[in-house]
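Our preliminary data section would be incomplete without showing what the modeling component actually yields. Below, a chain of 211 amino acids is followed by its predicted structure, encoded as tokens that our downstream tools consume directly.
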Amino acid sequence: MSKAEKVKDILNILDFYYPKPEVPLQHKDAYTLLISVLLSAQCTDERVNKTTPALFKRADNPYDMLTLSVEEIRDIIKPCGLSPMKSKGIAGLSKILVEKYNGEVPNTFEALEELPAVGHKTASVVMTQWFGIPAFPVDTHIHRLAYRWGLSNGKSVEQTEKDLKRLIPEEKWNKVHLQIIYFGREFCPARGHDWKTCPICSKYLRKQLQD
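Predicted structure:
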């Protein structure tokens, strides 16, 4: 089986299990999505979704966020971890959005990645999931699965992103990104993974072992 055939088969499996994947982080606009993605660094989506209602009740836009001190933001988001860095990032980016972008979240990678605490992965999520601009956000989980499935060499997140963009049709990037996240949680976890019960690993790891 060629690499292209393997990718097509994996995409078919993902489509079977997750035909219409939804964004796992609760949000109502680009700003609340941006803040939620920022908070999700080294934190589960479930915990972020339990934390953001209290934050967004106080401030769900950059103008209101500026009325809160960094300490107040930090106290609310503490359950998400890395609260000193994240609270400063939220306050800093909110200030820039108000002063430079009239309170709106910009829709370019360059502008997003210039914001405090916003890296390429966070910018990619906002670009593709809110603005509908093709991107393939790669976090540590997608990086791990791409290597496990033989779609990338696992040398870096950046290389994995390039490999997946090359192998997967651009119009499917957003959907497949979400599908891999959900698939990894249900069938292909980092720990305690039984490859024999995984719809993808049982197929391709078995073949590797036989070869």
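The CA atoms of residues 23 and 178 lie 7 Å apart. Residues 30-129 form a domain with the Endonuclease III; domain 1 fold (CATH 1.10.340.30). Preliminary results of this kind motivate Aim 1 of the renewal.
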